[in-house]
Design goal:
150 residues; Arc Repressor Mutant, subunit A; 2 domains; four-stranded mixed sheet
Amino acid sequence: MIYFDTCNTPIGDFFIGIENNYVVSFSKILPKGIKKETTLTKEVKQQISSYFDGKLQHFNLPISLQGSDFQKIVWTHIKTIEYGNLQSYKEIAHSINHPFSYRAIGNACNKNPLYIIIPCHRVVSSRNIGGYALGLQNKKFLLKLEGYNF
């Protein structure tokens, strides 16, 4: 059973999805389940609030990644990109030993079920800021929060 709650942020409202005491989604899409505030949804809200206040640089939440094996590899790698750092699709492709998979990495970012928590906003093109599922304005906002100006 999935429980969900709403989290208000400076870039809009997100839905937190919890299943078996793991965060399975933090997105704009309403998960199917029962609306219920839990200890874990409260913790997600607290950490997200601290992130937007500039007090948290790394999320410490139990997460469960739901996607293809390749997506999970990409998301696991992206989770290691430190606050204030950027990596290109190309750098990630080489890091995960899929040197020609730039587009597939972009697609995995687009399917990220845990926005902000898995920081796909820190992934950029070799030539420019790249895309972002939540829109370039939100990507720029998040990167500016972390010390970058585009």
